[in-house]
Each structure stands twice: as C-alpha cells, then as structure tokens.
Amino acid sequence: MKIRLFLFTLLSFAVFAYAQTANPSTAENYIYSKTCLDENCIKKSEQVQYFDDLGRSKQLIGIKATPLGKDLVTPVQYDEFGRTTRQYLPVPQSGTQNGAIYTDPLNNAIAVFGNEKIYTEQEIENSPAGRIKKI
What we know:
The chain is of the alpha+beta class. The protein is built from 2 helices and 9 strands; from the N terminus they run H-E-E-E-E-E-E-H-E-E-E. The strands form 2 sheets. Strands 1, 2, 3, 4, 5, 6 and 7 form a 7-stranded antiparallel β-sheet that branches. A hairpin with an 8-residue loop joins strand 3 and strand 4 (72-77). The longest helix is centred in the N-terminal third of the chain and has 18 residues, at 2-19. The protein is globular. The relative contact order is 0.13. Mean pLDDT is 84; it is low at 4-19.
C-alpha cells in the first residue's frame, strides 16, 4: 500500500512538473494563455502578455511559435503621452525563454529582417484630441 501511494505521489508530481511548460517572469504583471489545438492538448499555442504598472501592454510573446520552436515577440512602445505611435512586427528570437520577458526584443530584428523598417509609424497632432495627421 505504501509503495502504491509513493508511486501515485511521484507520478502526480511528474505530471504537474511536465504540465508547467511556461516560465513567465514573476516580477512582471502578465496574462498567460494556452489554447489546445487537439483533444489531448499535445499541440498547443501558448502566449504571455506582459503589462507595465499602468496596465498597458508591454510585450506579447508567442512561446515556441515559429516552426523552429523559437519565441515570437511583439514589443509595444509608447511616446511621452502614453500613445502607441509605432506598431512593430513580431520579431522571432534566437531561442526560447519559455515565456520570460525579453529585455531587448528588437535585438534580433537586424538578423531576421536586415535593415528593413519593421514598424508602422503614426504622426499625431499636438492637441487634446490626439488625431492622427499622417500614417
């Protein structure tokens, strides 16, 4: 009986440890989402979205989202008024951090995209309305 209980406990810890594949940064605010693509959740899509102290999006990380199993990171930057004036393309990273936040997600952009512009930029007028002048 003791051996069965020991094996059951050991097996349950092994399954729990295997199920925890993502490793988000605990010092940051984040939302982790997992979407199962088949019945047994063998194929899955995992994402971590990090937020700053004001609740604005900071980074969106697709865990092992590329065909080679590397992370796909979409950085979000704000201007001095808290508006997103640049919207970046997702940047494939050189490896995976299993959902941990990247300090410089644009570091690998030159290796992937070269000297191409990887963002769209909006010019916003300096008024309280904040209308877009040019895209």
